[in-house]
Specification:
By secondary structure, this protein is mainly β. It has one domain. It contains one helix and 15 strands. Strands 3, 4, 5, 7, 8, 9, 10, 11, 12, 13 and 14 form an eleven-stranded antiparallel β-sheet that branches. Strands 1, 2, 6 and 15 form a four-stranded antiparallel β-sheet that branches.
Length: about 200
Amino acid sequence: MKYIKIVGLAAVAAMAIMAFVGAASASATQLCATTGTGAECAGSGAGKFEYEGAVTGTSTNATLATNLANVVCEHSETTLNAEASTGSPVITGTVSALSFTGCKTEGTNIACTVTVRNLPYHSELSGTTLTVTDPSGAGAKVVCGLVLSCEFLTPEANLAVVNGSPTVAKAEGVELEHEAGLTCPATAEWNATYAVTAPTGLTVL
């Protein structure tokens, strides 16, 4: 009898764990903003509503770090079009725009041109992780005089979303694929912090 009770308790515990895991994996992601037009969002503060549509972000510290030279861009802007306000568990979307201006090599101040490749990109927002993917590679061709001339791409980039005023999306140490050659580096990674400029008061739940 004691053995049966122990087995029964173990079964109950296992079912509870499975229920918890199932609930966690099925948790929803929600976009809320003061300019939203959907239902009021619970848990995001008063005056925020479900938001679906274009989200614009800007960065003043986008950096391509390589062993040949680091390239810093004064301004980068991107637009993501969210296909829904709520997803279980992800909100899918499209990165329809990405640009880099005022770019130059760090220290030597050589002007660089950055030409974005393969737009648009697919995006998925799951909780506070934004994943951007493209089968041909998301990225850009970077030319800095005779120092650097190379195409930098990645099939997948993950950005961490941090709620705040404003909410930001951070790309940290994203490794980039590239060609081989004298003006292509041995190593390359991308770092940037994009602050949401529209819609106002964006929060990810």
